[in-house]
Amino acid sequence: MRQYELVERVKSYDPNADEDALNRAYIFAMRMHSAQKRESGEPYFSHPLAVAELLTEFRLDSATIIAALLHDTIEDTAASYADLKELFGEDVANLVAGVTKLSKVQLKSEASKQAENFQKLVLAISSDIRILLIKLADRLHNMRTLGYKKPESRLRIAKETMEIYVPLAERIGMQNMKDNLEDLAFKVLYPDAYETIETRLAFLAEKGQEEVAEVIRTLSADMAENGIEAKISGRQKRPYSIWRKMQDQNVPFEQIFDIMAFRIIVKDVAECYHVLGVIHTKYPMIPGRYKDYISTPKLNGYRSLHTGVIGPLGRRIEIQIRTQEMHDVAEWGVAAHWEYKQGAHKEGKQYRWLRDLLDLMNHCSDPNDFLEHTKIAMYQDQVFCFSPKGDLITLPKGATPIDFAYAVHSGVGDTCVGVKINGKISPLRTILQNGDQVEILTAKNQTPSAEWERIAVTAKAKAAIRRFVRTQKRREWIDEGRSALAALAKEYDLLFSDKDLSPILANTKFKTEDDLLSGIGEGLVSAKEIFHLMHPQNKLSLYRKTMSLFRKSPAKTESKTESQMPVTGVFPGLSLTFAKCCHPVPGDQIVGIVTTGKGIAIHTQDCPALAELKDEPERWLSVDWNPVKLQGARLPARIKITLEDKTAAMPELMTLLAQQKVVVSSLNTLTRSGGWVDLLLDIEVADKTQLDSVMQMLRANHFVSTVNRVKAG
Ligand code: MN
After folding, report:
1. Widest pairwise Cα distance in the chain
2. Pair 501, 527: CB distance under 8 Å
3. Which residue in 25, 82, 241, 344 has its CB near the most CB atoms, within 10 A?
4. Centroid of ligand 1 to alpha carbon of 120 (angstroms)
5. Gap between the Cα atoms of 90 and 301, Å rounded
């Protein structure tokens, strides 16, 4: 196509086209590409020219045609966005920049399951729908000249066409474009199937030619008879649609009868239904084939009546009935609105499909805007980025590498240390752009920083960071809570350990000891308050009274510190005794009793002897075992054994105890009767656990009847 032909073509449907700019664009593109050749050996300029020519078929505005001529100049020549803006204006420069961006979107073969995301990415980049139209025309021309490419790239491009551009063409209602792309891609992707179907279609076409003409003649006569003015055309179905039918219905080629389709175009909607009536009256209907897309248009705006009948020659045929307007929309889709803009607006009516498309694509409140603006807001609130493997990750606009990392996997997010965007090390706060390739760098010992929460925009990332930070904070709070209580305890010469909290948990709103400690650290509850719960006011004053008893005593001169005493909670240097009534051993719940000699006697808390001291609370001391001091120490415990009164019994008992390395410090026979003897034994053990296990072992002996701990004199 020559320069003047192109200009004339545009002017033929758009008298107001910018002729000068068209001419300048033609020459500019030709010059810029002058040194380049296509794979076919043709001058490169033949490609943008063919794309521009294709778009004139869609009667697109001159800005689109100019952008089509220039569409590869930013990517493949020395021309820049600024150059184009200066020479052809911002509108054209933006269109070319958009197409250039789209050319960077490449479907990697393993990513085909993500085709839908790729479609969204393309729509997101096509902020102006004319960008998508230029890209589709570009792709159509590339598909037509695909034969010159290497086989691998042929397959990739065909797959990409089938999975991304075919659905997009359908989505904006460009049936013609969709059919063309689909058949071209089909031929590359399934060459054998294509070949077979083509051969058979060619064979059928030979004898079918006559049949098609015959059917058209008959249908025309039917229309004339009923006073209907109609344009009737017949055609074979396309290879891909036949193949799809064979796949979907799992039938061989021979059983696809309606490979011939006829189209009847009439003046208005009423006439459409009239034609349908005529057809159904005269020819037997094939059940399940009637579809009314006039009353229920397809989402992309397609309207038509479809039916299947046993036609004039006794063959199954498909018939589509529609108006010219419906036909134009079906063929040209979104492009039809430019034509509409030029001529049809005087009727003041809107194509319904246009409104639907608009709703679909823009969520725009005022559909009329679409005629003035070609902007689409589809997925503009999202950003699509690639992983190094080519997986497409969808994020909200404004997302950062932190969001990307957590979108991949929370483990990746937690250990993220840096990022490479398009191969370049970049700050983690970088706002990601459509099509960015993002590689997250991780390190095993890295942990999320609280800072990240401000950088992230996705709920997933924010929640993960918050969760992590909270866990970390909690650990700090628990430590703080513990030291606060320990410090208070120290003021009263007490020792604090976590398990001291167990008895008072029920009186707080906290579930576990850690919760409580964390609550103190976080400041939800004061350490003092909890300390008083543990040591109620009366007990404290009681304690002070107790202490005052000692203050009069000179015994404090000893160098012993509290940690050297076998029990905690007593004054260092005091004489400490273990009560002979209950024989406490480590592990027993104990209490300290101030003795008349101003020493302290340790009793088990269930010692019966304590009953006498009920009325002298000031003598009671809260004490506990000092685990450090008790290492290796042994204390006597008293047990009572009922043994069979046999000669062999006593030696066996002693052997058993020796085997357990238990020292018997005293043994008394209490009673002897009826073949049984009761013994009172004092044995030295390290703690209650050992005592329990010794008693357990004794009970297992065949001479032993019962074994009990004795806690009263
Ligand atoms: Mn191109």
Report:
1. 134
2. no
3. 25
4. 21
5. 31
The number of C-alpha atoms within 13 Å of 135 and in the hemisphere containing its C-beta is: 29
What tens digit of pLDDT does each residue of 416-439 get? 999 999 889 999 999 998 888 899
8 A C-beta contact, residue 92 and residue 128: no
369: CA distance to ligand 1 center in Å?
30
> What beta strand segments (E) does 213-259 contain?
231-236
Give the sign of the dihedral formed by CA 510, CA 513, CA 515, CA 516: positive
Residue 88 CA, ligand 1 centroid: distance in Å = 19
- The residues near 314 (Cβ < 8 Å, ≥ 6 apart) are none
Q: Where are the alpha helices (DSSP H) in 33-61?
A: 46-57
Active site residues: 75-76
Cα separation, 292 vs 304, in Å, equals: 7
Q: Can you say how many angstroms the Cα of residue 636 is from the centroid of all Cα atoms in its chain?
A: 64
Of 697, 710, 647, 696, which Cα lies nearest the Cα of 675? 647
The Cα–Cα gap between 409 and 257 comes to 52
Q: How far is the CA of 388 from the centre of ligand 1 (A)?
A: 26
Give the pLDDT score at 505: 87
Task: Check residue 161 and report its DSSP letter.
Answer: I
- What CA–CA distance (Å, rounded) separates 308 from 261? 9
Q: For residue 54, which phi and psi values (nearest 5 degrees)?
A: -55, -40
Average pLDDT, the chain: 83
Cβ 492 vs Cβ 448: under 8 Å: no
CB 429 within 8 A of CB 453: no
Separation of 464 CA from ligand 1 center, angstroms? 44
CA 124 – ligand 1 centroid, Å = 19
Are 188 and 146 contacting, i.e. CB atoms less than 8 angstroms apart?
A: yes
pLDDT at 375: 61
**pLDDT higher than 60, residue 545:** no
Q: Given its phi and psi angles, is residue 523 left (phi above 0), alpha (psi -120 to 50 degrees) or beta?
A: left
Residues contacting 290, CB < 8 A, separation 6+: 305, 306, 307, 308
CA atoms within 13 A on the CB side of 272: 23
- Mean pLDDT across 642-666: 86
User: 259 or 671: whose pLDDT is higher?
Assistant: 671
Give 363-376 pLDDT, tens digit per residue.
433 433 433 445 66
Q: What pLDDT was estimated at residue 354?
A: 43
Q: How far is the CA of 385 from the centre of ligand 1 (A)?
A: 23
